[in-house]
Write a structure and sequence with these properties.
The protein has helices spanning 13-29, 44-50, 66-83, 93-105, 126-138, 150-158, 206-219, 241-251, 262-266, 283-290, 321-332, 336-353, 356-374; strands at residues 5-9, 33-38, 53-56, 87-91, 110-114, 144-147, 167-169, 193-197, 224-228, 254-257, 271-274, 295-298, 313-316. By secondary structure, it is of the alpha/beta class. The protein has 2 domains: 5-174 and 355-374, Rossmann fold; 193-353, 3-Layer(aba) Sandwich (Rossmann fold). The strands form 2 sheets. The protein has a 7-stranded parallel beta sheet with strand order 3-2-1-4-5-6-7, sandwiched between helices. A 6-stranded parallel beta sheet has the order 10-9-8-11-12-13, with helices on both faces. The longest helix is centred in the last third of the chain and has 19 residues, at 356-374. It is globular, with a radius of gyration of 21 Å.
Length: 375
């Protein structure tokens, strides 16, 4: 019997490795012929070691790049005609917009994943207007659309992009409960430590976090504030290395740089902070909960889907450093028992509702449904 051929398309190999590795691994183990299509980056060798076939393309992830996008569309058209995939899975904005149009024309089922609407949707302007109207054209041509939170799904339905029965909501990319096992030093033992771990982008609330830490340190100098993450040069919301280093130095924040060892990073942390402007469903909050650590995050789509205010963490106002600082000071005054209780409830909820096996199964079930319907 001929193997089913699956295209998995994203704007970077890094995205596929960091968020789609369990899905890719399961597809490969189940006998699917998996082709990953993305621009080459430092994570390409990891995909190759997984046993999937990598087909590199050129794509500028963000912005209005008409000529480059036309070249990308032609590349994708040639790949689909050449390899004749049974199903195409897409992740990230431009693949989500362009691929359903190509696949529909070639009568290939496509499964789109809206993992968050990104920088283009956060500000009013021509770019937001353009992306909304492109989604209106492309999403109806997909076979099914996966969302990481109900707010994004409701936005698309209310604006006439999709019918309800063409949508699925999954708990983000899910989390492996073994990836972050709670250590004996975390949380609440010894000095109080706040950690923000994310890409170093303005939209992630990095500047608000640093400003809030400065206020917290002024009120309670013994509290430790840390920032970890990497600089995403291709993102329009990127922050500069010197800018971050200078601001951290002025605020008394320890900048830890990039870390790939979540277990080591979260050891001894009392509370994880993510003051993001909007998310699909943030993995860092799942990791924190998995490690039994309470979180402070913003009351916005995606973030509030993970943290229950007053139960597994605290919610603060978006783009408001003063409110964030206030919530950080409140958290720092909780007893060790209260922190442990929050962390325990957070882990129990993640185990119950955000397991990565649930997400992987949802994708495989939909792939099999698409193949069955197309025969």
């Amino acid at each position: 019997m001929k193997k089913l051929r699956i295209f998995v398309v994203s704007n970077s190999c890094w995205n596929l490795v960091n968020y789609r590795y369990p899905l890719l691994s399961t597809l490969h183990e189940n006998g699917y012929e998996v082709y990953c299509i993305a621009p080459l980056d430092d994570s390409a060798h990891t995909l190759a070691s997984l046993g999937v076939t990598l087909l590199p393309v050129k794509l500028k992830r963000s912005g209005l790049t008409l000529l480059q996008d036309i070249i990308y569309i032609k590349q994708m058209g040639r790949l689909i005609r050449t390899f004749c995939p049974n199903v195409v899975l897409t992740f990230t904005a431009k693949p989500n917009i362009y691929i359903p149009l190509i696949a529909c024309q070639m009568q290939v089922p496509s499964i789109v994943s809206i993992t968050g609407f990104g920088s283009a949707f956060l500000k009013q302007g021509i770019l937001r207007w353009l992306f909304i109207n492109l989604y209106k054209v492309s999403l109806p041509r997909s076979t099914k659309v996966f969302f990481h939170n109900k707010s994004d799904r409701d936005f698309c339905i209310q604006n006439g992009f999709l019918r309800y029965d063409r949508t699925v909501v999954v708990p983000g990319s899910g989390i492996n409960l073994k990836c972050c096992v709670r250590s004996l030093t975390s949380p609440g033992i010894g000095e109080f430590r706040f950690l923000m771990h994310s890409r170093l982008l303005k939209d992630k609330g990095v500047l608000e976090y640093i400003a809030a830490c400065k206020v917290v340190k002024q009120n309670c100098p013994s509290i430790h504030c840390e920032l970890a993450g990497f600089f995403d040069a291709g993102n329009p919301s990127r922050l500069g290395v010197k800018q971050i280093e200078q601001l951290c130095n002025e605020a008394g924040v320890q900048f830890k740089g990039r870390s790939s060892d979540a277990q080591k990073l979260y050891n001894g942390v009392s509370c994880v902070v993510l003051p993001s402007y909007r998310e699909g469903l943030p993995r860092v909050l799942l990791e924190a909960a998995c490690a039994g650590i309470p979180s402070i995050t913003t009351d916005v789509p995606g973030c509030r889907d993970v943290v229950i205010d007053g139960e597994t963490g605290l919610l603060c106002r978006v783009a408001d450093a003063h409110d964030l600082a206030r919530k950080m000071l409140i958290m720092s005054e909780f007893s060790r028992d209260a922190l442990n209780q929050m962390g325990r409830l957070a882990r129990e909820r993640v185990a119950r509702e955000f397991n990565e096996e649930t997400v992987t199964k949802a994708y495989i079930d939909e792939i099999e449904r698409c193949v069955s319907d197309s025969r």
